[in-house]
Amino acid sequence: MGCPRCDTAVALKKPPQERLLKVALLGNPNTGKTSLINALARSALKVGNWPGTTVERLEARFLHGGREIVLVDLPGAYSLFPTTPEEVITRDELLKDPPDVLLVVLDAGNLERSLPLALEATELGLPMVVALNLVDEAREKGYALEPRRLEAALGVPVVPTVASRGEGTMALLQALLRPRTPVPAVRYPPAVERAIQALEKKITHPAARFIATALLAGEELPGFKAAREKAAELQKALEAIGVDPFLEISGARYARARELFEEALLGHNPRPTLTEKLDRFVLHPVLGPVLFLLGMLLVFRFTFLLSAPWVDFIGEAQAVLAGWIAALPLPALLGSFLADALVAGVGTVLAFTPVLFFLYLAMGFLEASGFLARSAFIADRLMALAGLPGRAFIPMVLGFGCNVPAIYATRTLESFADRLRTGLAIPFMACSARLPVFTLFAAVFFPKNAATVVFALYLIGLLIGVLTAWLLGRVLGAQASSGAMELPPYRWPPLRVLWMQAKVRTMNFVEGAGGPILIAMVLIWALLHLPPGPIENSLYARVATTLSPLFAPLGFSDWRVVGALIPGFIAKEVVVGALGVSFLGAEPSAALGLLAGAGQLLSAFLTALKETLGALLGLFGAPQLFAASTAPSGLQAALGRVLSPAAAFGYLVFVLLYTPCVATLAAIRQEFGSRWAAISVAYQLTVAYLVALLAYSAFPR
Amino acid sequence: MPRIKGEMRRLSELHVGEEGQVARLATPGRAKRRLFALGLRPGARIKLLRRAPLGDPLEVQVGESFIALRRREAEHILVDR
User: Fold this and answer.
1) ipTM of the complex
2) CATH 3.30.450.20, applies to A8-176
3) Where do runs of H (alpha helix) occur along A530-593?
């Protein structure tokens, strides 16, 4: 065979023994790469992010055969001619920071589809090893394969593995120490081949042949200026004789992949798989949506029921700390700062961690098991009404529990535009923190129609959220993202990796959003407590009084009612507490002894543990829909005196819609940047004002 | 929508369970490369497995892959029987 680039020198050069051996895993999505790195790395596995992105990066560093090995999992790719942001990361990493060994992971049960990527990889000029993974699934599908024929054809070691059971991992580790640099395995039609070789001469890079094909096919590659100009010239010349370089290059790769597949195939006796059988139910036109809704309910309950006991525990711990601080001989203002600003601030941040952790577990399971793609399939048409893809359904639904995890759940969407549009719609979903405000006002002003009023509020939020997503799509001019996606086979995900991912993602929240939340808490504390004295003389009262005329058109201008909106920025339920303080005065926390506090903490911890177990058992029980307000009756009476029912409804609409709470805002900033966080505040304040005005004016009197 | 002639049909018009061979992708722009990467390319055998509850998207089988496609995208894929 006329070898276009017989660079065997690379293969013969032995890697220096003392140096770190960097191994990168390359493979299609859903080829079990995560399971494989988990099996290879065991306890050495670390979860992080690719720099500057939210794309997860798995890495492991360990000793094997006297060599220190670093394994890096590259984002799943169908091709090194990228069509997704993940594929761009993978290609750029391979070109900018090439590994010592490239470990290409193939899906034995879908071999023909996974081979083109391996063929592209042979053009990178890197020592290579192939893991023929999922040989168990291939057998179940009725395939008989001969890995040695693949080995002979590719010229690199091929090791059969079943990563989920750890089979073949020892052989694979051994093979990683003896990689071979393959001869580029694809031959292109003569005209294209000549153009590639002419281009290669202009490129000084070990992956010159791959880069030449990419430039010729019109791929956008950073750098390689001289070669790019030459490529444009060659491209034109080829097109002039009726040759489309992209079609010829990819066509030749697919054709070679087919040949290799047929060479390795001993026989095929097709058998329906578990996935096909299950999908008859899961994707059934009638049964599918029912199962889908039940599944959503389960995710929702898993996230919020299992985390609730730990949120309560954190609240309890916060109260104990406040009690201890009250027992210290401190000046009142300092004590209040410690308890109400610092402890409360840290408590607020921590209170989100159980919710996020359980959410990430649930989402990780859905995604890795194959269910997430199915739910996107089922919900796609419905979400298209808002111009959103099916995957936006889950984040939107989670928004009704808590907006913060919902914002982070948008990460499962593919394009930034889709994530942003969903992310800015989510804060309009009436989260559970808004319910205490709703129930308090409903009890005072609409005792007979409480449920109707609260339901109307949920509906208003949902409608405005959907409208926002739709409008934003118009404004951004974002074309509808492609709905083309793989429905991967159902698989049991590596739970250890899910657990680690959930932990790391939760920590990302604390690090990224913790600071802003804490700062906001301190600022609002300062407003409420400075200068020291009765609340009527505070900065807070002054700001509220200045702002209140603004709200006269909405029917409420009492400074105490308007003012409560400010601390409501921390979490909307705080509105109730702030109203209580303004109308009835503050209750100082009672001093607590060291031992009494410790006892309280311990019993709270045990309660949380017990309730988590209870929640686990009760996951499938009937949901509790509506709880009566527990606000003090003094507050209820006071509110009744200062507001009319129409004004109360306007106020509720305003509370529903105005500004995301600080934690949601911090999440929006983390995901979409400061500019979009600022825009979302300005936009929501405007929308809240206008809709509340409308609600107040249109309210039946 | 692309024009079609002879025995060719749009993928979106196949009956559930029907099979064919991809003849041509009239998909504009980069989306075509995405479909190629997923295995939807001229010459590939393709089978319409089902439609989602509201008639959109569709699920097709190409080799051992199961791919979901919006109807709009399927209209651009021409299939020979």
Assistant:
1) 0.93
2) no
3) 539-547, 559-563, 574-584
